[in-house]
Amino acid sequence: EFSAPMQGRVWEISAALSKRRLQQQLDLNPAVLDALTEGRHVRVITHDRQTPPETLVEGLPEAHIEAVTPRFEDAFISRLQQNSRKLATPTSTSPQSVSSDDNAVIQAHELSRCFGEFIAVNKVSFDVKRGEIFGLLGANGAGKSTTFRMLCGLLPVSSGSVRVAGVDLRRAAAQARAHIGYMAQRFSLYGNLSVQENLNFFASAYGLSGKAKRKRIHSSMEDFELTPFANTAAQTLPLGFKQRLALAAALMHRPEILFLDEPTSGVDPLARREFWWHINALAESGVTVLVTTHFMDEANYCDRLVIMADGEVLAEDSPENLRARFHQPGEVEASMEDAFIALIEQHQQKAAA
């Protein structure tokens, strides 16, 4: 069996730390090959079976570790990870200025968008605090992308109010955009330009020049391991490296808020893990992240999220609380997919009544 060699190498660990901090600390352990957030735990794969479990939790407060049954994905990731190396902590992606108060940096109140008679988004409300990773989760047509585009000023609001970085987006969109980094699903890159030329263009577009611009480009290429591809045309890069370049470009001006629209669609599992490693580090540094996704496992990276359907918010909470809502006594812990399906079924039953 493909996963049989993984016996004794897969563990579930929890501790009195935030899930993001716990994952980061475990990922830096030299005995750990892979660390993945799953609900209230972090799923860890070690390099070999000889790793004493106590070395994995040494120094972690109130740690609990338990061996778990390997699955196909563990073996697949193990094979991919063997030839990769762990990323260094980014040095150039912290925001230039982050407000020190605890007020929400994104505020949506009864946000609506109509296309003729069709209501794509219907009175959606939520707040996002500084340093949070906040998710918009839903199937195609749920209204999450329309909501997302209104929040970053790409689509006019039909009714309701939205404030980003303390600025009324309906009145001063240009001022708000100065605080925003945006990474589109299809990566807004210039394919015929090289990696370095793309970063040079985006740095200039964000107002950087001279020594500061050169330093920012150099550090971004180092952080995202793009230096070997400096003179490579963006259109010829593997998809995972296009993703790195797009994220580096979005962060060139060190924004306070980062908008990510389906950022990992089409990339392999290892590239997805590397991408979220960067996003977690950004959030730890104080950057606020708003992300749309239809990957249920990626919802576990979010501090809070909303689940949408038919242009409405069905639920807003942390992934852990949403999973707990649909846990049945005596059964295994509910997954995000379980919670999502249950909410959709409740919504459909209510609509049919």
Describe the protein's architecture and organization.
InterPro entries: AAA+_ATPase (IPR003593), ABC_transporter-like_ATP-bd (IPR003439), P-loop_NTPase (IPR027417). Keywords: ATP-binding, Nucleotide-binding. It holds the Pfam family ABC_tran. One of its GO terms (molecular function) is ATP binding. This protein is of the alpha/beta class and 353 residues long. The protein has a domain at 4-81: Alpha-Beta Plaits. Helices cover 32% and strands 24% of the residues. The chain contains eleven helices and 14 strands. Strands 10-11-12-7-13-14 form a six-stranded mixed beta sheet, sandwiched between helices. It is globular and about 60 Å long. The model has no long low-confidence stretch (mean pLDDT 88).
